[in-house]
Each structure stands twice: as structure tokens, then as C-alpha cells.
Amino acid sequence: MRLTVAQLAEHIGAELIGDSSVDINAVGPVGVADESTITFIANDRHIQGLEKSRAGAVIVAGRIEGLAKPQLIVRNVNAALIEVLNVFAPELKSLTEGIDPTAKIGRDVKIAKSASVGPGVVIDDTVEIGENTIIAGGCKIGENSKVGKNCRLDSNVVVYHNCRLGDNVLVQANTTIGSTGFGYALIEGSHRLIPHNGGVVIEDFVEIGANCCIDRAKFGETIIGAGTKIDNLVQIAHNVIIGRNCLIAGQVGIAGSCRVGDDVVLAGQAGLTDNIEIGDGVMIGAQSAVFHDVAAGQRLFGTPATDKTEALRVIGLTRRLPKLAEQLRELRTRIKGLEAAKDDKK
Q1: Averaged pLDDT for residues 179-203
Q2: Which site in 45, 225, 254, 284 is 20 to 30 Å from 188, CA atoms measured?
């Protein structure tokens, strides 16, 4: 697709300053954009790079004086960027409504007419699929599970039995929802699996990345709250309850029966031990390990996770240890010299 900056400005509701006739066919970062690419400035530190950038136009939050390029001024650069990326998204083959002839459908299954069921899909008995939902090739949905409307399950997603997905849920390829949790009891010298008879509930507008695992509950339900976004390669164990609008980055691990509040951020490779509670608005830094309850609004970092400011201070001091050790050796040498001199005077 190719649009003039004037057409693009109208599409995103931007104020246009500069040449309105420049043609745009792509969006990209400041450093690599060319004359037919629109770029964006979401952070003031990138403004300097605009002088050398070949970009045909730029999306900004406020006018940049002395800049020759066309400027599209918007209230929210990130929101405008999303719109522009959607405009220039690759045109892929659209999926058709209906059920592919290679799909295997069980008994008493309810599939909305507007839904799309791809090749090789297996849907077990008494499953429900809502309107405009896409079930891509190779997916498997177990007995008594329900997928709401406007959902998309990418290739090879597995949803076990007795799981419920709300509306507008996105699940990327190879993710598994409802697998048996890692719960064992040591009985007479052997580890015996504890039955996991509960389910999983994924609420509305949740997005789950590729290759994630969300375990079913022993009893009751594992719950992912509305609006929560989960990155790739995340493990969520049995009976975990995650609140609304959380952000969970790649390779996070959440052990069984944790309670995570609303608006929580877990950065990459963070880990939560079992049976702890994380309050609303908490932020856990990358590679941090949390072993205790965390009150609302705290910022933690490190292993074990502590207050972020204190943790960074400890790291700074730790890096100074070699120099401090050298200074300590020098002080010991000087003290020995002073003591020797003192003994010689006796």
C-alpha cells in the first residue's frame, strides 16, 4: 500500500506540517528509514537522529522547529504508531468461514457459522466455539471446553478438557492450556501424581504468546484475568490466579497457587515461588526470584528479590569489592609497617 502523508495524517487524525505530497509505503525506525518510510519519535533522545535520517516523514508528539521533513503531530505517538503499522501490515490470505474437511469434530459440538476451523483440527465432544473465532490448523480442543467470540488460536495450540476462553482472546502457536500441573506426593518412596481435576479460565482480551504452558488446577480453576498479556515461553502452574491487565514477559515462571494482583509487571525470567501473593501494581525486575508476599505498589529486583533501589545499591557495592579488597590489603601493609616501626623504638 502507498499513501501520501496527507492521506496518512487524515487516517490517524494528525496535524500535518510540511509537504503533504510525499508518498509513504512503510514505517520504520529513525536509523534505517528511507524516503518512502515514515518514522516516529516516542522519546526525545531520538530527536537528534532525525537530522541524519532519510525518513520521508515523522510522527511526533509536538512540533520540532527547523526540521524540513513533514511532521504528523499526534497526542499519543504509540497509539498513532499502532494505527500506521496496521495500515502497512502485510496482506495475508484471509481465512474463510466454516470447517475444513480434514478437521475432526466430536459429538454435540457447537461451532458458530462465522467461525473458521482449519485443517487437521481436532475438536472433542461438547465443545463450543463462538462467532468470528479462528481455530488454525493443527489445534486440539478437549471435551467440554469453550472458546468465546472473536478469538484466534494459532497453529497447534492445545486446549485440554474443561477449559474456558473468553471473548477476544489471542493464543499464539504451540501454546498449551490446561495440562496437568506438576504436583506430586512422596508415598512409600515413590512420587505419585496428584490428580488435577480443575480447569483453566482465560478471561476476555487476554493475549498469550507462543510456547506457553498454563496448567489446570488440582481443584477449582487456574485463572488469567481480563486484559493480561503474556509473552512467549511462560510457565503458569496449577491454581495460579493472575489479575487484570498484567504484563508477563518471556520465560517467567509462576509456581503453584500464587496470587498475582491487577496491573502487575513481571519482567523476563522472573520467578515466583509457590503460595505467595503479589499485590496490585507491583513490578518485578528481570531475573528476580520472589520468595515472599509482596505488598501493593512495590518495585523489586534481584535474587532474592528486594527493594529495587536497595538491590541496585548492593550491586554497585559488590562491583567495588575488588577495589575495596585491594585498599584493605594496602591498609594492612601500612599498619604492619607502623607497628614494626613502633616496636623498633622500644
Answers
A1: 96
A2: 254
Determine if the peptide bond prior to 304 is cis (ω within 30°). yes
Q: How many domains does the chain have?
A: 2
Instruction: Judge contact between 236 and 221, C-beta under 8 A.
Output: no
pTM reported for the whole predicted model? 0.86
Instruction: Confirm whether 345 is domain-assigned.
Output: no
Q: Which residues of 197-215 are buried (b: 16+ CB within 10 A; e: fewer)?
A: ebbbbbbbbbbbbbebbbb
pLDDT at 346 over 70: no
Count the neighbouring beta carbons within 10 Å of the beta carbon of residue 173: 16
Task: Burial-class residue 338 by CB neighbours within 10 Å (0-12, 13-18, 19+).
Answer: exposed
Q: Is the pLDDT of residue 342 over 80?
A: no
pLDDT at 336: 82
Which residues are catalytically annotated? 238
User: Measuring CA to CA, which residue among 179, 109, 96, 167 is closest to residue 136?
Assistant: 96
- Grouping H, G, I as helix, E, B as strand and the rest as coil, residue 319 is helix
Domain end, chosen from 44, 61, 87, is at: 87
Helix axes 5-12, 77-87, angle to 10 degrees: 120
The three cell numbers of residue 76 are 499519543
Residue 318 lies in a domain: no
pLDDT per position as a tens digit, 48-61:
888 889 999 999 99
136 near 120, Cβ under 8 Å? no
User: Domain limits at 79?
Assistant: 3-87
**316 in a domain, yes or no?**
no
Q: Do 31 and 126 fall within a single domain?
A: no
